[in-house]
Amino acid sequence: MAGTDTDTDTASGPPKDASPAAGEPRDEQALAGLEAGLDALDAVRVRRTPLRETLVRKVLPPVTAVALVLVVWQVLVWAEVAPDYKLPAPSAVAEEVRAAWLQGTLLDYIWTSVSRGLLGFLLALAIGTPLGLLVARIGFVRAALGPILSGLQSLPSVAWVPPAVIWLGLNDSMMYAVILLGAVPSIANGLVAGIDQIPPLYLRAGRTLGATGVRGARYIVMPAALPGYLAGLKQGWAFSWRSLMAAEIIASSPDLGIGLGQLLENGRNNSSMSQVFLAIFLILIVGIAVDLLVFSPLERWVLRGRGLLVTR
Amino acid sequence: MATTITQATEDATAVTYAARVEHVSKSFPAPGAPGGRQLVLDDITLDVAPGEFVTLLGASGCGKSTLLNLVAGLDLPSAGSIRTDGRPALMFQEHALFPWLTAGRNIELALRLRGVARPDRRPEAERLLELVRLKGAYGKRVHELSGGMRQRVALARALAQDSRLLLMDEPFAALDAITRDVLHDELTRVWQETGLSVLFVTHNVREAVKLAQRVVLLSSRPGRIAREWTVGIPQPRRIEDGAVAELSAEITEELREEIRRHGRH
């Protein structure tokens, strides 16, 4: 221990035999030069992946997978494994898309659902965030609400549709109620998990800098919990979207306009399997698109900024 | 005994210490120990004068980090009083920089929490980075910096608090030998330039002798002040200097004797 220099640095250190310390006069300039050398040797260089590599590694595999599914689907249709009212051809579904596009209703279907979903999600965000902060930081609130939030998270939000219809009627507020009950617990729980995983060192460092109370929450706790919070938001969106689809399928009324859920339900009533497929694809595509265009870039940006993104 | 923690900010001329620790004891609840509590620090009295550099030396379990936390105000003593001249800054073994902020923003956060106005923050952060010779590192993320650079940014952030007392808890223990050596010189230079008081905790005897004007040796379980040395060797010192080695050998012998005592019963 005393006087021994144990090297516990995990980063790749400079070669130990290169020590210029012995014998050399150590004036100001020598020190500055030595320091600059150490900095240059030790600094971590961060490389951004070039676009071409991203295309080959990230875009090509999913495109291949989708193409493969289409091929298998077409083969099954040609082999006539099921009658066409059960398994429509890909071309029939494509025709359904084209017809809806030409009628100008395709974007209406999507927008009706997406606008509901996003507004509901933003409401859930506004409620879930302070709720999560309270649960994480105040022991009494955590003991009181923590188990309930976890329980609500595992309750399928379809279960809320019947009571919501009875309490609020067949209207948009009923849809929002179902979305909130599905998404708020996810968002709050994500934030709680994010806060629980903050290294205690950051909180101590924050306190010595004078960040306590509200300032501590704003400058230390919230930014430190951001990765967990984002994971919660991502799940919260998935729950919002699922709850909304459940609500739209079960509760249809002419006043509500035709969203993707109603489109699916209409397809079933019309015994039009291609319309059912169309609705399912659109629901899937919206879910994937929001994740791909909003949450994944956000998550990658946050993780990259913190050096937490593993590049292989 | 009464417990007082005072962070004095009165008339500067009245304050003749950067930190004054008087008869401080600290015990933690420990089932099985006599009285249900384990005594970690026993009757510590220690002054750090303005501008003085003191190292607190001891083996593991001597409570030196506990004492530092008490002086930092992160914990309360069980007995005795601690007074500091304003709120002290604290540096840890881990750099404790916030990974969601760049090097420069880490420093600016300290400035902001201290109440520095927005237009003054950026120039001040740049000045502090220059002081620790990291000009140009303002926009660097924490993970892009080497271990030694991180500790220098952490030092700049601690300096941004504009405290008169800097507490350091084995800040260089996790660095490789040559980087640590460079940071010793760097810290000595910054200390001389700023006129700060420093209370530096370490278990490395040579580090203690190289840096300090005064070395305080703590005994273990419970922590008591065992002995003090005034280091008269002029700065800049080198770890290989004969005088440094000589005093280190003397202190090491004392420290070993202190540790041996625990094996005897």
From TrEMBL, chain A:
Residues 110-294 form the ABC transmembrane type-1 domain. Gene3D superfamilies: MetI-like. The chain crosses the membrane at residues 59-79, 117-136, 148-168, 174-195, 276-298. This is NitT/TauT family transport system permease protein. Residues 1-27 are annotated as: Disordered. It is found in: Cell membrane. Keywords: Cell membrane, Membrane, Transmembrane, Transmembrane helix, Transport. One of its GO terms (biological process) is transmembrane transport. PANTHER family: ALKANE SULFONATE ABC TRANSPORTER-RELATED, MEMBRANE SUBUNIT, TRANSPORT SYSTEM INTEGRAL MEMBRANE PROTEIN. It comes from the Bacteria. It is a multi-pass membrane protein. The lineage of its organism: Bacteria, Bacillati, Actinomycetota, Actinomycetes, Kitasatosporales. Coiled coil: none annotated. Belongs to the binding-protein-dependent transport system permease family. One of its GO terms (cellular component) is plasma membrane. It comes from Streptomyces calvus. Its main location: membrane. Pfam families: BPD_transp_1.
Automatic annotation (TrEMBL), chain B:
Keywords: ATP-binding, Nucleotide-binding, Transport. PROSITE patterns: ABC_TRANSPORTER_1 (PS00211), ABC_TRANSPORTER_2 (PS50893). Transmembrane segments: none annotated. SUPFAM superfamilies: P-loop containing nucleoside triphosphate hydrolases. InterPro entries: AAA+_ATPase (IPR003593), ABC_transporter-like_ATP-bd (IPR003439), ABC_transporter-like_CS (IPR017871), ABC_transporter_ATP-bind (IPR050166), P-loop_NTPase (IPR027417). CDD domains: ABC_NrtD_SsuB_transporters. GO terms for molecular function: ATP binding; ATP hydrolysis activity. Pfam families: ABC_tran (PF00005). Residues 19-247 form the ABC transporter domain. PANTHER family: ALIPHATIC SULFONATES IMPORT ATP-BINDING PROTEIN SSUB, TAURINE IMPORT ATP-BINDING PROTEIN-RELATED. This is NitT/TauT family transport system ATP-binding protein.
